[in-house]
Amino acid sequence: MQIPDLLLISLAEQCLYVYSGKQLLHSYAISSAKNGPGETSGSGCTPRGWHQVRAKIGAGLALGAVLRGRRWTGEVWTAELHEQFPGRDWILTRILWLSGLEPGRNRLGSCDTFQRYIYIHGTPDCEPMSQPESHGCIRMRNADVLELFEQVPVHCRVLIGEARQAELASMF
Cross-referenced Gene3D superfamilies, in alphabetical order (predicted)? Predict the structure, then answer.
């Protein structure tokens, strides 16, 4: 099995591509920020540029496990639980916590991806994919984020950009 060394996220295509070297291993539908791309803290936007997976959270939890403040609440998402908390930004199953690698763009100061708590995480399967709907993070289907979590090592590089896959792939 090849170990991924790059996650390429195309905001234009609302897709996450998994690479090992120059070889594309897999792709997943995602949902990025409803507010579009941007790096400023409090903007509700998805930060662009080079990042890394800084931490992996949720190993061993059930599919649909509810996470708040990067901790398991003891709950597993259900439609009934969703109805009880209709405005909640659901973070489910696993978290890949991102950290920016470009000082002044997505690292340090008011644009720090890590301090903004920007994750790749699971979301309820009733939420739409392939369209921007998140509060800044990268949302994925629960089964997809579980599969990705099991493959991706800590410090794996992540490139988030507005271009399509082919153009972004030419950057590495």
Answer: L,D-transpeptidase catalytic domain-like (2.40.440.10)
